[in-house]
Amino acid sequence: MMSSPLLQQERLAKTMLACMAFYALLAMHLYLPHLFGIGLQLPFNVIGWFFIGLMTTLGLWHWHRRRLLTSRFWLGLVVASSLLWLPFFYSHNNSVAGHALPRMLGLCGGLLFYLALQQCRLNGRGRRYLLYCLLAAVSVEILLGLAQFFVLEPDNWFGYNTEVRSPYGIFQHRNVMASFLATGMVLALYLWLNEAKSPWRGFVLKSAWFAAVLGAGGMLVVLLQSRAGQLGLLLGLLLLQPLIWQTLIQTRSKRLLASLLLIPLGIVLGVFGLDAFDMSKRSLSIYTQADGRFDIYAHGLRMWLDKPWFGFGYGSFESAFYSSYADWRELTPGAPPLFTEMGHPHNEFLLWAIEGGVVPLLGLVLMTGLVLQLLYRLPFARSLAWIGILAPIFIHSQTEFPFYHSLPHWLMILVLLYVMDAEYGRRRLLAAPPGWSRWPVRAWGLGLMLFMATGLYAGQQLTRYEKNEERTEAQLQAVVNPLIWYDRVAFYRHHWQLSRALLAEDRAQLLDYVSWARRFLTHTPRAGVYYNAYLALATAGEEDEAQQLLNEARRLYPNVQLLRSHRILRARERLATLAPGSSVAELNKVVPLYDHLRPAIGGAY
């Protein structure tokens, strides 16, 4: 008869796998109307963090009752993560470090989730089921992408643009969808190479599944026209070639050889789809041009070399980037202005180096080294195969910011690393934590679930508020969890303050709005906020200060139409013609105030 601790451990493993399967098959793909953006501004990410909180709570609920099972790899990740945390506490340049707190907490949440997986002590079969869950998530996204491309009609509830016809799945972005699919395709091929051929029926069914992922995924990666996804897929497949060749020699499997032909078949169908259907096609020049990234990388490197040791401070990338670029552009005749609303340098290493200097950069290098060290003892072909599985998301993180756009990418990396660590790493048993420690751990998991549940509802409240032309301030005050949308809620609230102050010509309230706007611009420089603050200062009679603020905005954004002289003059003339006692609705019709805070989603990419 199985002992009580072993029975409890088996139940925990089964419960964790059930939660992962439910998330991978259903919860991850739920669509809710939203205001676009990245991170927690997208509902599927909020749902994902709810499930991470749930699984972390389950895995660590009884962590104080026995010795903790972990690994040298996880302990190394903790050390590397502490290097990423260190610049957060610099006192001389971290006035806006709070805006980096979400990504720091996301890092900690990932480490705790990893530790929770380790406490489940899954055997080889359980770890394989985890990989099946990842592949199931990719499979559902493939089905969703095919439905978007072939089935959805105009004005669909999903909000999918049938004229552009870019099947982005739940991710709302072609590159994010492409790197997710590419990872799934390489994973499917790896699982196929390692799949036992008995029982026969199970092998046939799994083979059909893997083949469908390879064929349909190849077609979608072409239809998405994503350079990052296509490059990641190509690199992943190349790194898998030694293991494929080795397996073909050993097994002489005709089925495996036939399955490999499904990838070029899917690519051919994708190319045919590009020509046969009316969709937005990208020019072939995208494969030979940097598309503005060279200028971003070049200036990002200049920023790091300017402050290599301590950086510009966490949370300050966007404001520091545009300010320093304006300084450089003034000294460099002919330098072009860059995209507005860009909150990431499209390279993960560069972001941490610019904001935190050399210390977090060393942390990222240490993490990369730990992964390579983990695979060092494996046979060469198998270690290359695992690197190939990680390659699509890694490549994407060096050309964009998938971990901020998509929680499923972060979850996939964590699960893949856990499986690698559990199979090839060195385990460590730590002493049982003190009894009091269970309460902070439980509070983290339960608090995360509560925060995300209320945040999901708050997102729907704000979406209804934004899309309602007859919006009221009471609707804004009813948002149950404004923290998850802190900047957006603050912007809306101060916009109401600005509207009332302009109508009443309330100088004190106008200057109070300007004070908030200046604080806001230190971390999120928006041309529209500069525009609003200028009108507030001008109406308050502070002409010199207003002109100074406008000059600063034009220096940062010389190509923004909203800041041109004729737009400014027209807005001031219309403000002067407003009749006394006019309503906020009448003000919004007469004066085009900036009333929609767009998220920093990476400029034009």
Describe the structure concisely for a colleague.
The chain has 25 helices and 2 strands. The chain is mainly alpha-helical and 605 residues long. Helix 1 runs antiparallel to helix 2 and helix 21 runs antiparallel to helix 22 (527-539).
Description of the molecule:
The chain has 605 residues and is mostly helical. The protein is 67% helix and 1% strand. The protein contains 25 helices and two strands. It has helices at residues 4-25, 43-60, 72-85, 101-120, 124-150, 174-193, 200-224, 227-251, 254-260, 262-276, 293-306, 317-331, 348-356, 358-376, 380-397, 402-405, 407-424, 438-467, 473-477, 486-504, 507-521, 527-539, 543-556, 565-577, 584-590, and strands at residues 68-71, 427-430. It has a two-stranded antiparallel sheet with strand order 1-2. α5 crosses α6 (174-193) and α8 (227-251) packs antiparallel against α15 (380-397). The longest helix is centred in the last third of the chain and has 30 residues, at 438-467. The protein starts with a helix and ends in a 15-residue tail after the last helix.
Counting helices, strands and paired strands, the structural category is mainly alpha
Radius of gyration: 26 Å
The helix content is 55-70%
Please work out how many helical segments DSSP would assign: 25
The backbone outline, from C-alpha atoms, is globular
Task: List how many beta strands DSSP finds.
Answer: 2
In terms of quaternary structure, what is this? Answer: single chain
| Sheet of most strands | 2 strands, antiparallel
Strand content: under 5%
Calculate the terminal CA-CA distance, rounded to whole Å: 59 Å
Query: For the residues shown, what is the average pLDDT?
Result: 88
Helix and strand element order: HHEHHHHHHHHHHHHHHHEHHHHHHHH
Strand order of the largest sheet: 1-2
